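[09:14] KT: can someone run the structure on this one? pasting the chain below
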Amino acid sequence: MKNNDLSLGTALLPILILVALLSYNVLVYGDDALSGSNQFILLIGGAFAALIGFRKKIAYEAMIQKVAENLQSVTGALLILLFVGALAGTWLISGIIPAMIYYGLQILHPSFFLPACIIICAIISLATGSSWTTSATVGIALIGIGTVLQIPAGMVAGAVISGAYFGDKLSPLSDTTNLAPAMAGGSLFRHIEYMTYTTVPSIVITLIVFFVLSLTRETTGVADTESLMIAIKEKFTVNLWLFLVPATVIVLIVKKTPPLVALLVGTLLGALFALLFQPNILLEISNAKLLTPTVAYRAIMDAISVSIEIKTSNLLLNDLFTSGGMEGMLGTIWLIICAMVFGGIMDAIGALTRISNALLNWAQNTFQLFASTVGSCLAINLTASDQYLSIVIPGKMFAKAYSDRNLAPENLSRTLEDSGTVTSVLIPWNTCGAYQSGVLGVGVGEYFFFAIFNWLSPFMTLLYAALSIKIAKKT
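[09:31] RB: done, structure tokens below
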């Protein structure tokens, strides 16, 4: 394939067209853009790249071959996403996720309300894998409690968002946490392990700042979380035995067990604990009066495969106790497949190589390469207005540049999350900023400064790059 004569402008043209189309698409569809329209736009971007390839005499078969190689490289990631959906379902019906929320709410106290907000939201987001669900449920309750305590809404919202995005980033149940290593060509648990190096210092600094803020404020009233805890207790059997399941999964991960095996074990143990501790939940899901083997089997399989909802006496918890199962992961899987089509064609026509060479020529050192990645993620968040796209587009654009520099893929995946995922909520017209602002009833301008974890994360990843801390090389 004679594609070495591709100019940088021509190589960038499909990406520029893609960003322009995605920006308009998000403007039209808003939060629903991920339901399918964004995926089709990625295919349109691939079609533009293919037209350039045809002009350069690149064979159609060669492009399809590259797409096939790309899809093969993310097979493990796609399977992990399906197992993540299955695990989330069984951990909900077994009471594991409700137990995490129940014990998390017990740490709330007016004297350290703001740091407690961060910790509670981090626990819930880590358990559910969703910053959006955390904000729309417990986040709303915390905003209400903060109002009673006469704490500014922007301050409470900043604490809620900081904790929610911290948990989202480190949760194996999170779609963005799975998406980033898939785009960078790395593994899920290695990505999570590597993220802790920048994420933990960022959240520690955030907690210290909010602890100081709590000491400088006088609060009045009572942090009433009793209604939430009563609603959980009414529905689920809550005890510490339930934590044996996540503890087992953590041990398997530490022992370097393959991710698919660890997730499968976690899913099956969740199903077993549902039978042992939550028979009433299985009856509710199946709309049955007597728990027979068939009823139990059907309830567990529904939780694993499709969307389920467990209703409680508290309306806020109803949204939180919803799981999409494997079906809920299909949107992200669809996005990855279409991104691989776009990336494969861009690779086949030599565009990614041309862009990678230009980046390597400009980025004379590792810090400049990291800075380019951070800048690209922020630019996509500002223009395409979607956190998923801020991971997908720079991920495909920079993967070869990191590889050519002998940098392990977790460097890229961590940088994508540190600069793409968390900063999306700081932009009012981004889907994340619009969603969080609407759900919490607090403007982005009000919580921007107090979302300390979110704007601190990209600076932390750049600091590590500048000081060459935890920059893994390819093995």
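[09:33] KT: thanks! The beta strands are 308-309, 322-323.
[09:34] RB: yep, looked fine to me
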